[in-house]
Amino acid sequence: MLSLNYIRENKHTILAGLEKRQFKPLSIIDKIIALDQKRREQKNELDFILTQANQKAKEIGILFKKGKAEEANELKSATVAFKEKSKTLQESLKQTTAALYNLRTLIPNIPHKLVPNGTSQENNKIVFTGGEIPKLADDALPHWELASQYGLIDFELGSKITGAGFPIYKGKGARLQRALINYFLDKNTAAGYKEMQVPHLVNADSGFGTGQLPDKEGQMYRVPEDGLFLIPTAEVPLTNLYRNQLLQANELPICLTGYTPCFRREAGSYGANVRGLNRLHQFDKVEIVRIEEPQNASAALEDMVNHVKGLLADLQMPYRILSLCAGDLGFTAALTYDFEIFSTAQNRWLEISSVSTFDSFQAERLQLRYKNKLERKQLVHTLNGSALALPRVVAGLLENCQSPKGIKVPDVLVPYTGFEWIN
Q: Which of 253, 339, 360, 403 shows the greatest Cβ crowding within 10 Å of its Cβ?
């Protein structure tokens, strides 16, 4: 959420950013500024009346001490008007503040200057390509057929137990999942990220803090009896560990990692694009989160991007990095880099990670601040990324590593799987 100070002082920058996002109506910014002015006027008037009332109360106390009860009671009756006026103003201020807050929740983050122009994913910009796309035999199979052939994943059994989008991993398929999770966690902790185990359900305040609510409420599974939501990503509980906190500068940066299942009620469709592991309602993911001083956030983002690059290079996966255009940028993000691996058998790119910086947008919603070196309270900057999401990594591994002998497990995973081949 954009802070009121930022909105007041950067109207033209905000309007340009929202226009870049194709956000409408832009008139909402003028409404926010007008409401803020009204709120400030109401608060000033209320403060003045409360000051007057306090002053009269002191005068009444002095009169009583001097034994002038009659004068004190006359003055006391005159203060009734102050109380009635202050009560009316408090209610008006409460309503204005609520309306102002609700309008601010509708405004997305302002795109960073590096964000490309564009309205859809076709306008995303490729900024890096790594690895080599393998040449497979003409009879190479997509991952859902390989998973069935080698008894790794049972999609039909998952549908029987729960429904579409909830696969069952079996045997070496389950072992491969566990190997990837442990490998990613080990790499993350070696890079300085502190491992955390967090709840898989969160309350509405947590969902609001990181921006999933109300923006993506329709994509989240919920438990209405308890007012809880199943997490769409570990970003939510990890970042909310520090909600409503005032940190010290020497506590930053905070670097966290965690493995969780993720749950998303994404709208389904038909065809190869969503077959197999391409789109699931429950999947495993290892996340990295950083909380930084504003001046260090850009370097932190670059470090996170390089970290994910290293994971994919170790897995010997062909991949590319895209800078998301303004029209494809998430509600809370200021700048996002998407990582995609190439699925040779499907002849298409599959998104497997997003690394984003949110500037102070999440911190304002979280009320997460720190004391800088000048002992002034200031909003932190937050960042997060997938390192990595498993389903499409598994899909890419199965498809790109297939051969007549079977599926070759990447060397870095062998100590975790205990086997070199799936055959």
A: 339
Closest CA to 261 of 297, 224, 239, 287: 287
Is there a contact between 246 and 186 (Cβ–Cβ < 8 Å)? Answer: no
From 288, 289, 301, 293, select the one nearest 252 (Cα to Cα): 293
* Tens digit of each residue's pLDDT, the chain (423 residues): 999 999 999 999 999 999 999 999 999 999 999 999 999 999 999 999 888 888 878 888 887 888 878 777 777 776 777 888 889 999 999 999 999 999 999 999 999 999 999 999 999 999 999 999 999 999 999 999 999 999 999 999 999 999 999 999 999 999 999 999 999 999 999 999 999 999 999 999 999 999 999 988 889 999 999 999 999 999 999 999 999 999 999 999 999 999 999 999 875 544 556 789 999 999 999 999 999 999 999 999 999 999 999 999 999 999 999 999 999 999 999 999 999 999 999 999 999 999 999 999 999 999 999 998 888 999 999 999 999 999 999 999 999 999 999 999 999 999 999 999 999
Q: Which residue do the tokens 């040779």 mark?
A: 344
Sheet containing 377-379: give its strands across: 246-248, 369-371, 377-379
C-beta separation of 170 from 161 below 8 A:
no
Amino acid at 243: R
Structural contact between residues 220 and 207, judged by C-beta atoms closer than 8 angstroms: yes
DSSP 98-122: HHHHHHHTTPPPPPPTTSPP-SSGG
Cα radius of gyration rounded to whole Å, the chain? 27
Scan for tokens 């579409």, then name that residue: 164
Q: Retrieve residue 145's tokens.
A: 């057929």
Q: 391: part of which helix (H) or strand (E)?
A: helix 390-400
For tokens 């052939």, name the residue: 149
d(CA 378, CA 371): 6
Pick the closest to residue 75 from 102, 50, 53 (CA basis).
53
